[in-house]
Amino acid sequence: MTVMIAGLAAAAPVGAQAQSLSLDARVGQVEKRLNTVERVLSRQNGGGPLVQPEIGPPDASTTAAGTPASAPLTDLQARVAAVESATASLTNRVETTEHRLQQLEGDFAGYRRATDARLRALEESRPTSAAGGNEAADDTPARPARPAPATPKPSAAADSARADRVAAVPKPTGTDAADKATYAYNYGYRLWKAGLYPEAEAQLEKYGTRFPKHRLVSRAQNVLGLVYLDDDRAKDAAQIFYENYSKLPDGDRAPDSLFNLARSLVVLKRPAPDICQVYKEVGDVYGDKLTAAQRAEADRGRATYKCK
Asked: Which one-letter DSSP state was computed for residue 269?
């Protein structure tokens, strides 16, 4: 019995030492992983030099043989406390980094929306280029600002200034110039966008007379109606829009001409049932063929005039 007790007493320190070494090795692995995370965060937060880890292996020191070691549990408690502190610090840095990323994403999204809005505004207001190009796709934007009304008897200086404005409108070149019908349409379109309504009217009326079967005739007639509408000739505009829709119901701008007809009737102060009839025609004839913007416009019109 005495021998067994002595054996157990001798084995106890060995077991405690093995347990301490095992726990020590596990804490060491945690420290190494934290060091790796710290290096990654250091590079992400600024791309600067690597930041040395706050926790490192204990300084190697030699002790004289036979010198009693410090209590293993006390050492491990100190190291675990250091690991917990470093973990809290890393958690805070990760949360801070995530917050900064969210702010950057929000700022970038706002910047992109503002840039898109500015680009759209520039595209709507920029003059057409002198290099030609087909303006056929751009004949449905917001109307250009109307210039100041001319005096009944313009002076020679006023005539000269208007001639300069007309001369400043670029004429189509390249392939558009070779195609006389396309040239006539595009030049009339550019005159309208420049606010030169009488000149645009003459150009587009000449186009309609000379090229009644051209592929752009639906667009040209719609633009001619817009010229009349902008030039305070709402009755003539309504007539042109109606004829463009009724004669060319499958034309590129037939639905737009119906919407513009409704606008003309509003200017002419026609009763709401007449305007509602136009919006009903839009839905009955074109229905699912309308674009999202056209459907929204039709819905607004019906709501405004309380169409049934």
From this structure: T
More confident residue, 170 or 57: 170
Each residue of 257-281: b (16+ CB within 10 Å) or e? bbbbbbbbbbeeebeeeebbebbee
Burial of 141 (0-12, 13-18, 19+ CB in 10 A): exposed
Closest to 254 in 3D by CA, of 280, 221, 207: 221
Q: What distance separates the 2 farthest-apart alpha carbons in the chain? A: 135
Residue 302 identity: R
Contact 237, 229 (CB under 8 A): yes
Which residues span the domain enclosing 191?
171-270
Q: Is the pLDDT of residue 264 over 90?
A: yes
CATH at 188: 1.25.40.10
- Cβ 258 vs Cβ 245: under 8 Å: yes
**CA of 110: how far to CAs of 116, 118, 121, 123, in Å?**
10, 12, 17, 20
What domain count does the chain have?
1
List, for residues 19-42, the tens digit of each pLDDT value: 445 667 777 777 777 776 666 666
Nearest in space to 270 (alpha carbons), one of 305, 227, 231? 305
CA distance 279 to 19: 87
- CA 260 to CA 27: how far, in whole Å? 78
The answer to whether position 110 is within a domain reads: no
Q: What pLDDT, in 10s, does the model give residues 65-113?
A: 444 555 667 777 777 777 777 777 777 676 676 666 666 666 666 656 6
In the block, which residue shows the tokens 């667009």?
219
Does 161 or 146 have the greater pLDDT score? Answer: 161
CA 67 to each of CA 62, 64, 70, 78: distance values in angstroms, whole numbers, following the listed order:
10, 6, 9, 21
Q: CB neighbours of 267 closer than 8 A, spacing ≥ 6? A: 229, 234
